[in-house]
Amino acid sequence: MHRTYSMRQSRAPTASQIQNPPPPSSSTKSGRFFGKSNIGHSFRRNAAGAFGPDLAKKLSQLVKMEKNVMRSMELVGRERMEVAQQLSIWGEACDDDVSDVTDKLGVLIYEIGELEDQFVDKYDQYRVTIKSIRNI
Fold it and tell me: What is the model's pLDDT at position 42?
């Protein structure tokens, strides 16, 4: 059976994917607790908004809340891709018709997860802009 899109076969990148590579991963994917800076710098940076003017405090709170939102969206996208793979694996043991449908549905769900991951990267760029405004 010929499959145009399948989770079970590795696909070569298309010409458009080669010409327009995906953006760099977001800053929350680094896996480090304090990032590249030391603890003292992190404390001073985080405390600066708490002791400044009211608008700076509110903007600092917004940036922190946005980071939590971004982490949640990142987790949802990652879990959606895992669910898509599991659906495809489960359908592989079924009849040909069910296998074909679950595989294609898995591809669609996986691509939704990839789009969510790209959205998180753009959302991180928005956060960087807000952080630069906060630091003025």
Answer: 64
Residue 131 has a CB neighbour count (10 Å cut-off) of 16
36's tokens: 């590249």
CA dihedral 101, 104, 109, 115 (to 10 degrees): -160
Tell me which amino acid residue 73 is: M
- CATH class as words, domain 54-136: mainly alpha
Structural domain boundaries in the chain: 54-136
CA distances, 102 to each of 8, 28, 67, 80, 109 (Å) = 11, 32, 34, 14, 10
**Chain segment 16-39, per-residue pLDDT in tens:** 667 776 666 555 555 555 555 567
Cα–Cα distance for residue pair 57/49, rounded to 1 Å: 5
Q: What's the whole-model pTM score?
A: 0.60
- Tell me the H-state helices in 4-95: 15-19, 39-50, 54-92
Chain centroid to Cα 1, Å, comes to 34
